[in-house]
Specification:
The chain has 559 residues and is mostly helical. It has a domain at 3-27 and 45-235 and 268-414 and 535-557: Sodium/glucose cotransporter. Helices cover 75% and strands 0% of the residues. It has 25 helices and no strands. It has helices at 3-8, 14-35, 41-46, 53-62, 67-80, 86-89, 93-109, 115-123, 125-158, 162-211, 213-222, 237-240, 245-267, 269-276, 281-295, 299-312, 314-322, 332-340, 345-381, 387-412, 418-442, 448-470, 480-503, 522-525, 540-558. Helix 7 packs parallel to helix 13 (245-267) and helix 9 packs parallel to helix 22 (448-470). The two termini are 44 Å apart. Keywords: Membrane, Transmembrane, Transmembrane helix. Belongs to the sodium:solute symporter (SSF) (TC 2.A.21) family.
Length: 559
């Protein structure tokens, strides 16, 4: 057995395994019950557009609480400290609020079934095809990350080889997605949200107690490699890779806070799909806004444990000091669980990690099957078949996506900090897509040709920055290369799109109603108030204002 396995082995007992078994029984039971509600493809891919805002809001945030958020952010916490909060307070919440207030009326109001389908209506088939293919590729790559980490937990717990663990983990997620489609994924995501919080909150509290409270953590972090800079969110030089404070702030605000963040939250169908499953326009707009409230507090149960692990766990402290050893930053949470949690609580914590990885992978697969079935197969390969055919196709596509994700899990295994890998993927796929979206939504002159040419140009630019960084031409440690790549992709996409638009013919104004902001009547951009939606707490703009004010306050307190 490899040495790393023995270092990370968690001494679970019967009570821990019982908790895990009960959780899996619930997960599969939800999938079986959701199957009863699936009678057509809309039920399978979009839950029949019937779910209440609180359910879709929690699913919205839980879909993002996958390996990226839990292990990736705790790894970042261990490596960089408090600057990691930028992924939440700068790199998520403003974009989530923008999605709810400004963009959801276009997605939900146009009754499109996916984000690429919106691209089809705005720009035509070429841009639609580029978007659909790039999205599908991104989802199986990201699903591989979640699957690899899910398999790592099984490996640590049971000692099974990683490849066996990958296959077992994949089969469990595949089972409930193919049974109940998006409804099974969403209701499981709500369950998973509460399980994740119940698992990580006690770990944080026990860890803080062990390290001597916040004051003790402050003293130990100050005396560790990286020093006191890890206790202040700004300017975040270690995270951004810039030595200049000014450039670091610009990189975080523009690269992460604008391009990467808005690119991910406003155009990523994994998230938008949850809001599309809402029962009406008001619920769809409130979905990301409701999700923003728990989102702003997630750093305290994800980043803080990573910081504690970096000063409390000897193996990780050695790795941070010397850059070598049998563990790395991705192991921060597992090492902390190993050292601090008693049996019973350990089982709950393991269940929380399993829940987070399953939520992330299920979100990737449920959006992957929708885009491949609707946007690629139905549109370009096998047209005009009965609805039952596409329902069956969706289930088979889920199987194929899972098999591919097993392969892409091998790529994820090669990174010591998985957030570096994920941010790189987002700079490739999300940053140029956001540029195309935002220009096309607010500039009616943008043409169909500009849609796909800009998208391809932006993606190629991000890939070029990555290649230059990997070969040492651009020296940007941390996640600076991702921020620069995202910013460059955004700017190139905008410039190319404007130039191509000026050289080609635009669509007529009447073809763009409901797709371009200035040409869409206000009544189409706001919900008709329905019975039960009159309370102040159901007003999207007011809720968004409260969330933004709280986020600014957190930035000031921890800045």
């Amino acid at each position: 057995m490899p040495a790393q396995d023995s270092i990370l082995r968690l001494d679970a007992t019967a009570i821990d395994y019982l908790i895990i078994a009960l959780y899996f029984a619930f997960v599969l039971g939800i999938g079986y019950l959701a199957k009863r509600a699936v009678s057509n493809s809309l039920d399978f891919f979009l839950s029949g557009r019937s779910l209440p805002a609180w359910v879709t809001g929690l699913a919205f945030i839980s879909a993002n609480l996958g390996a990226i958020e839990i292990m990736g952010m705790s790894a970042n916490g261990a490596e960089y400290g408090m600057p990691t909060v930028h992924y939440f307070w700068v790199g998520a919440i403003p974009a989530m609020l923008f999605l709810g207030v400004v963009m959801m009326p276009f997605y939900y109001g146009s009754k499109v079934r996916s984000v690429p389908e919106f691209m089809l209506r705005r720009f035509g088939p070429p841009a639609h095809l580029v978007n659909a293919i790039s999205f599908a590729v991104a989802q199986v790559l990201i699903a591989g990350v979640n699957l690899f980490l899910l398999a790592t937990i099984v490996n640590v717990l049971l000692g099974w080889p990683i490849w066996v663990s990958v296959i077992v983990a994949a089969v469990i997620v595949l089972s409930y997605i193919t049974l109940g489609g998006l409804s099974a994924a969403i209701y499981n995501e709500v369950l998973q949200f509460f399980v994740i919080v119940a698992a990580l909150l006690p770990l944080t509290i026990v860890g803080l107690h062990k390290v001597g409270g916040w004051q003790g953590l402050t003293e130990k972090v100050t005396g560790s490699p990286g020093g006191g800079e890890q206790l202040s969110a700004w300017p975040g030089n270690a995270l951004s890779g810039f030595s200049s404070n000014f450039l670091s702030v610009i990189g975080i605000v523009f690269g992460l806070g604008f391009v990467l963040s808005f690119g991910y939250w406003t155009t990523n169908f994994v998230e938008v799909q949850r809001a599309m499953a809402s029962k009406n326009m008001s619920a769809a707009r409130r979905t990301p806004i409701i999700g923003s409230f728990p989102k702003m507090f997630v750093p305290f149960i994800v980043i803080v444990p990573g910081m504690i692990a970096a000063v409390l766990v000897p193996e990780l402290a050695d790795f941070k000091a010397n850059g070598s050893g049998e563990v790395d930053y991705n192991d921060a949470l597992l090492l902390l669980m190993r050292d601090l949690l008693p049996n019973g609580m350990l089982g709950l914590a393991i269940t929380g990690l399993l829940a987070s990885f399953m939520a992330g992978m299920a979100a990737n697969l449920s959006s992957f099957n929708t885009v491949v079935s609707y946007d690629l197969i139905e549109r370009y390969v096998i047209k005009d078949r009965p609805d039952e055919f596409y329902l069956r196709t969706g289930r088979w596509v889920t199987v194929v996506g899972t098999v591919i994700a097993i392969g892409t899990a091998a790529i994820a295994s090669g990174y010591s900090n998985l957030m570096d890998y994920l941010q790189q993927l987002f700079s490739f796929f999300n940053a140029p897509l956001f540029a195309t979206f935002i220009l096309g939504m607010f500039w009616k002159r943008m043409t169909a040709t500009a849609g796909w040419v800009g998208l391809v140009s932006g993606t190629a630019t991000a890939v070029l920055v990555f290649i230059l960084s990997e070969n040492g031409v651009i020296d940007l440690p941390g996640q600076g290369a991702s921020f620069v790549g995202a910013g460059a992709a955004f700017v190139v996409d905008i410039v190319v799109s404007v130039l191509v638009s000026l050289a080609t013919a635009p669509k007529r104004d009447e073809e763009l109603v409901g797709l371009v902001y200035s040409l869409t009547p206000k009544e189409q951009r706001t919900e008709v108030t329905v019975r039960g939606d009159h309370g102040w707490y159901r007003r999207p703009v007011l809720l968004a204002g409260i969330s933004l004010a709280m986020t600014i306050a957190l930035n000031i307190v921890f800045g």
